[in-house]
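Troubleshooting log. The previous structure file for this entry was overwritten by mistake, so regenerating from the original sequence record. Sequence copied from the archived sheet and checked twice against the printout by T.R.
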Amino acid sequence: MTTMAAQARRLLPQSPLHKLQQLLVFALFLLFSSPSSHWYSAAADYSEQEGDRVGFLPGQPRSPPVSQFSGYVTVNEHNGRALFYWFFEAQASPAQKPLLLWLNGGPGCSSVGYGASSELGPLRVTRYGAGLEFNKFAWNREANLLFLESPVGVGFSYTNTSSDLTILDDTFVAEDAYNFLVNWFKRFPQYKDHEFYISGESYAGHYVPQLAELVCGRNKDKANTYINLQGFMVGNPLTDDYYDSKGLSEYAWSHSVVSDEVYERIKKVCNFRISNWTDDCDKAMNIVFSQYHEIDIYNIYAPRCNLPQSSAALAVDRALTANDQEHFRRRIRMFSGYDACYSSYAEKYFNREDVQRAFHANVNGTLPRKWQVCSDSILRSYNFSVLSILPVYSKLIKAGLRVWLYSGDADGRVPVIGSRYCVEALGLPIKTQWQPWYLNKQVAGRFVEYHGMTMATIRGAGHLVPLNKPKEGLALIDTFLLGKQLPTLR
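Regenerated output below.
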């Protein structure tokens, strides 16, 4: 840490202090230091940063200690638009660790509800939303970990201009996320020069590369805040409408979800390359989705949850049972995440008033609704204008970014088959052939290295790899951040 704010921070005890006490300590530090405009600026940064510090969340375990912050960052003052974040410093040596931004997809799903509290964050919601438990496989073992609820209207993020919610698309989302980063670095200047990476899953297969593209473009102008972006990694990502749709149908057939006859029918009547599918194709694909009423499309080998379904799960079911073509097209873009139990637990916990107070969320009751792990209204209103992210991949690979794609091989929603088609379509020369990688002397998955990109699978994981296979997920992010090859020996 190089700023005066960071130096002052080290004077404070590691245990959480009352915000007033923290500010008094820092004020005394400044009082006995030589004044300068730089230091006063640092004091302002420190005050705002410390105002976001979360001392202790209801039901949080007393140990180990967790250094965490949460709050709002304004991304558009004119419209009153602000995005909510949850940030965890690395468990050890945060000053030396990279910064990793995580985004969930949907569109409409919360990175707080899924990524942070169900998958890879250090504090996971326990059964029935009773409290929190420490996740020993949290990714902040390897990086400073930043979760963002995006786009506006998701989770605790809000706007004072309702028309914002009618114009959401990939470009809008990327611009807001970029503005968030610029303003977040002003609040946390000690991380500005750290290596920066972006990761996410499902529809974040759009968000992550597009944000990376925007950062790279803005970095070329010296008048803009420079963000030290080094690469990105996406999991079970929606990437290209044609290949993803083709992969979904092939996976259902190859994994015995549907019969040979149904699959042959799909091949005959469905042309996934066109945006408007025929009625015959709708009917054929309806048979595929009807089978997923009985099993979990996001993890075909996992048991279904028997708890009352959350809003996210109910929204998925509404999409599955809809008959008209408009709903069918949105069905292809179902919510990220799959476990109705985890959705229910998170929604119960984050709607508690004591949690929101400690979390600096829904200040003054600004949200017009209850907190939801996924927003059905965002999914319905989202403008799907980008059919393929592959040109963005090609551009960023040429720019020299580190690019990884991973896939849980039990996911029927964004299956490994479609992702393999997407990666192969890039036409990259192969560096190392398809082969297994290992963890604890067992095959953890397979991977292939291209010149410019790596693709890996995680054996037995569904749509949410860090939830299903936490050890493997941690090994994956560790290897990615270090720029190494996945282990090939038992």
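Residues 1-41, 310-339 have pLDDT under 50 and may be disordered. Archived copy saved in two places this time.
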